[in-house]
UniProtKB/TrEMBL annotation, chains A, B:
It comes from Planotetraspora silvatica. The lineage of its organism: Bacteria, Bacillati, Actinomycetota, Actinomycetes, Streptosporangiales. InterPro entries: Tscrpt_reg_PadR_N, WH-like_DNA-bd_sf, WH_DNA-bd_sf. Signal peptide: none annotated. Residues 7-77 form the Transcription regulator PadR N-terminal domain. This is Transcription regulator PadR N-terminal domain-containing protein.
DNA sequence: AAGCGCATGTAAAGGGTTACATGATTGC
DNA sequence: GCAATCATGTAACCCTTTACATGCGCTT
């Protein structure tokens, strides 16, 4: 159900085609809410059937841009204000960590180093993006401000996971250095 | 695919029935990797068909406990060492935050306060659990140590999200107090 | 004219949730 | 005997991903 509202929300910023939306989902939302184009096109049609969006313009190569309708705006506002928040995380790295005890110390070490690298890199990327926003490179329109907030969460979460992975590797009995117990 | 390995990993700790596993998924993994019993029973049968687990014992009320086989242990070890890590997050609260600009300031305020409360509570719950582990209430067996690591991640993530929600409400133009601009 | 990127779609399969259903055992 | 809990399962549905497919328009 969330993709539906993701699309509505993006369209609330202005008209866009399925292709545009797919790109934005990939670029901005890739790690937060992945969505592939088949799902996007299908959902757009359902949104149009329900009268929440309508065709805005048609361009070359069958390009079809949609714009949000009044009831569409009402619907996403309703969702934001009344809809239940889903707090599910479903983080595979955490599921894996439950089974660290099954891993060879060397493999675990390697795994954790990679995780630190991955999440540090992610944190840096998002930080850089946040800085550009803060320098006003994208303007100060409301949608940009909200995106700044989202990016802040991404920064904090990847930072937290990087720190955690570092903590975990220190917390493990170091490989090749059996405890002096 | 991850549920498969989740089940294998839990069975690596010792024999358990589908019912046991469903409870453990709910209690421990509820927020990290939710799984409902129909999926669990189905997956258990597939694991048995593939020879990765086998029936350990049968009890009252058709209870069937499974134990992991040697190839099952090999398979989860292989996954842990070689399988690709999926770093997808898919956090609905972050998707929502992209659209904060569409919300009435009052609704947003209320939403963020609830989020702070929710994640603080979650952080506290996990912290309490971590403390009990640290006091040795659950022993010091390897699976318990790994679980301690997982819980640490849960604590840090919920803390990060609680902090973020607090930051976000301060970052928003406060409702009813228009800026002195 | 060739190749790339734009732009949309279908089909199949996989993964997960919800609703429905059933029967056995335990505790009161 | 009754209610609660244990324990398993089926069916339908929804959401998502992957693979396959097609054709247009722009650039070189």
């Amino acid at each position: 159900m969330s993709l539906r509202y993701g699309l509505l929300g993006l369209l609330a910023e202005g008209p866009a085609s399925g292709y545009d939306l797919a790109r934005r989902f990939q670029e901005v939302l890739g790690r937060i809410w992945p969505a592939q184009h088949p799902k996007i096109y299908a959902e757009l049609r359902r949104l149009a059937d329900d009268g929440l969006i309508e065709v805005d313009s048609e361009g070359p190569r069958r390009r079809t841009a949609y714009r949000i309708t009044e009831s569409g705006v009402a619907e996403i506002r309703r969702w934001l204000a009344e809809g239940d928040v889903d707090h599910t995380m479903r983080l595979q790295p955490l599921l894996r960590s439950l089974f660290f005890w099954l891993m060879e110390p060397d493999d675990l070490d390697r795994h954790l180093r990679r995780e630190v690298e991955f999440y540090s890199g992610m944190a840096e990327q998002y930080s850089a993006y946040a800085e550009r926003k803060d320098r006003g490179e994208f303007g100060t329109a409301p949608p940009v401000q909200s995106m700044r907030v989202t990016i802040e969460a991404a920064v904090r979460l990847s930072q937290a996971l990087a720190d955690w992975a570092r903590w975990a590797s220190e917390h493990q009995p170091p490989a090749g250095h059996p405890s002096t117990e």
